[in-house]
Please model this.
Amino acid sequence: MAHIKELIPARPAPAVLHRPLTTSRVIGIGLIGIWVLLAIALLSMMITGWDEAKFLRYGPRYLHGLWTTITLVSISVVFGAILSLPLAFARMSKNRFISGFAYGYVYFFRGTPLLAQLFLIYYGLGGFRPQLEAVGLWWFFREAWYCGLFSFILNTAAYQAEILRGAIESVPRGQHEGAASLGLSKAITFRKVVLPQALIVALRPYGNEIILLIKGSAVVAIITVYDLMGETRYAFSRTFDYQTYLWAAIFYLAMVEALRHLWAYLEARLTRHLKR
Amino acid sequence: MTGPPDKGEVLMDGLFSALGSALAWIVNIIDPLCGPVGIFTWFGNSTLLACGDTGWGDEIASGLQITVAVALCTLPVGLLIGFIVALGQQSEDRLLRLASGIYTTIFRGMPELLTLFIIYYGAQIAIQSLLSSFGYDERIEINAFVAGMIALSVVFSAYCSEVLLSAFRAIPKGQYEAGDALGLRRGRTMILVILPQLIRIALPGLANLWMILLKDTSYVSIIGLADILRQTGVAVRVTKDAFLFYSLACALYLALAIVSSIGIGAIERWTGKQGTR
Model:
């Protein structure tokens, strides 16, 4: 029986492979270099341009603006969600007029810029002052804050109605039929069978919609609401310091990134039963 | 630089002005508001919306032209940058992926309005400080059209790269290998094999981005470019008829959206036909 008497001596370790300097690598290093340079330039600008008085003066205002933005967005999202429910059902309705109305509403608010809607509500409805005073709604449409809120609610309701409709329609028919064969009523079927499945589909679009709303909320600064953007414009108009915009950018980016990561976590957590 | 302009310069100037007036003539003919077959020309006479000196029709018509021009100029630039960024994002090099990731994260996370301000004022300050380092001290203002176009293309490209990236991922690896097997170079494979499929896959997403771009053009009114919203705003300040003019602005944006969705439908049918055998 043949067997090995001698072991093969150990081989030397393979030579360390040098990664070749390809074009894409050179470009990559160059681009990262540009980003790093830009970051250093901005940082040095912030450090050399640091002004204690300005910070003490405008810092609290920025935080107040941030709070205004967050309040504005959260109230709009909640009320928009409430308003979007009947809209989504109207859109799915078999009645031509009801679904036509909902389609028109959604088309209008998704087809025109938020800025134009804001002007239409703030300045346009302001022209109907006597009528509004007669019905006692003038206190509402007089304030830029309420008008901004109102137009955001209407706008996000249109987008959320489309998200909800798409999600509800994505639930297969068999689910309705299965629930019906179990003898569940229409309302219970919707609440316990359709909605949970629809909301998982709608989760990601809802996150995108909130991010869009955070970014869109900057336009209320134009109608003199002091949100984060409004405070930034105020600080810039007083100091002519470019840093004011950079601080706003940091705040907005932090908000959006935090929300994005929170949403990724939520989605991973809520869909863990769907993964194989 | 005072001497008489040489012959070539005069010729070029003449050519450009001829081209410009030809373009203006064509735009005037097809102008849907104040052209020969325009809505305001026919129905707006002796109202606030009349064309000419008595009404606001022609101002709003020029605003519409500016809005369309900004959107149309932004589209190719945004698509090109978006394509390059998408290529970077799916590159095998880690640093290149990181660099393009930073780009999309920043410009998708910032409000469009803030991006516009940062580019508008930032470019102004940068050029100013550059010039003052050469000893040239004068206040300069950069063109609002160019600044708006750059800002919108940057935002558009950040979103576009995501759309193109997912379209790239939908193209199977075999297509690249088939290109290699046919002896095509990398660039030829990209243009002849990948790009036609990429466009068809990415078209719905790009159409969506075009709709968003049309709406985002309204932000350029804030840095003083005379687009639809700016011109209607001027009209409102003079006539105090805010509801009419802002409704008109909304109607114009809606009309643009409807026209684009018809155009996009036609393009989709055309590309769909190419795919069927």
